[in-house]
Amino acid sequence: MELRDGVIGLRPIRQRDQRAWQEASRRNRDWLRRWEATVPPTPPGRITGPRPSYRQMVRYLRHEAAAGRMLPFVLTYKEQLVGQLTVGGITWGSMCSANIGYWIDEAVAGRGIMPTAVALATDHCFHGLGLHRIEVCIRPENGPSRRVVEKLGFRSEGMRPRYLHIDGDWRDHLVYALTAEEVPEGLLRRWRTR
Question: 3, 7, 50, 144: which one has the fewest Cβ atoms less than 10 Å from its Cβ?
Fold first, then answer.
């Protein structure tokens, strides 16, 4: 599944994206470090394996996608890989919900690329998959990420204390959400007409 609006696109992550993905990650390491998930310390006596390679990560993401639990996309701008957006935690049944997480290359941040990508993914979740609710959880001090969802009209639902392990500690997150009924015309359309 590929999603596109002009020069902005979302497509499934691939093994052949390795060089571009690693270069973007390396170039943005310092900029993203404060916001990226980390693995909490291992309890004494428990053994953990090494950090997965890019290839292992892609295999895992594609396996989860095939199982219907995740949509792992790379974000492209003018056909260049500039970030990643993942629809995760897809839950069916009486909940029909998911969450969205994302990062973007600092060199292209602030150009409306990420709001467009989130709108594309949200519309696909609502109108393509039939999900009912999308959440985005963001650290309170991450102003640029908060602006993305606020521009799109996601509503703030409060704080989740010590919600996710990020940058070496358990961090509070603000929860933003949107339901399909709130954007019957589609989120991308609403974003484009604001």
Answer: 50
Q: Give CA–CA dist 29/88, Å, rounded.
A: 22
The number of beta carbons lying within 10 Å of the beta carbon of residue 111 is 13
Do β-strands 169-179 and 155-166 pair in parallel, antiparallel, or remain unpaired? antiparallel
Q: Looking at residue 29, what DSSP letter applies? A: H
Instruction: State the average pLDDT over residues 41-49.
Output: 66
- For the whole model, what pTM was predicted? 0.93
Indicate if the pLDDT at residue 78 is higher than 70.
yes
CATH class of the region 3-40+49-192 = alpha beta
Residues 80 and 20: beta-carbon distance below 8 Å:
yes
Q: What is the 3-state secondary structure (H, E, C) of 89-123?
A: EEECCCCCEEEEEEEECHHHCCCCHHHHHHHHHHH
Per-residue pLDDT of 105-146, as tens digits, reads: 999 999 999 999 999 999 999 999 999 999 999 999 999 999
* Cβ pair 135, 97 in contact under 8 A: yes
Say if residue 162's pLDDT is above 70: yes
Tell me which residue has tokens 């994206």. Answer: 17
- Domain spans of the chain, in order of start: 3-40+49-192
pLDDT band at 36 (very low <50, low <70, confident <90, very high): confident
